[in-house]
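Q: Convert this sequence to structure tokens.
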Amino acid sequence: MSRTLPEALATEFEATELKPFYAVELLFDSGDLRFWTGYDEIEANGETWTGSGLVMSISGTSEPSDLSANGMTITFSGLESSIIAVLLGENYRGRSAKIYLGALDSLNQPVSDMYQIFAGRMDTMTLREDGQSAMISISIENVLIDLERPRQIRLTNEDHLERHSGDNSLSGVAALQDRQISWGR
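A:
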């Protein structure tokens, strides 16, 4: 991910009047959901983003100097029932989620492409209802969390054939295991 803001966005952040916004992209099989923290719809990054107004909140995050995997949480309230059905009806675990930062100009249009501030995978989803409204919280884990998961891959021909059918490139590994090789002759 690039660490430089688009030039127009950097210029807007230095202006005396600023209209920043966040945007969230959740990728599902049945279609992607894109929200931003404003009203109506906007066109940004070549996509249409649905305004969620004040019904979306994003937890803070930090970027540590080590390789620790910090996550984020997005909370929605007051969503349409069709969107809630997609969120609850689909397999969301491990699906991609991205969070962007942008700014609007004086005509309430994005000044440039948005800047991606976080990318991860959806982990858990919590639904809270009180009879009047429903709140959905989605925790997103950083992709670095994969570094902490154990790998169960072995360099055997059998294990390789399970993942790559018909590829016998590791068929000689077992024969090399006990073989004496003389170097420098």
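The helical segments are 7-13, 81-89, 157-163, 173-177.
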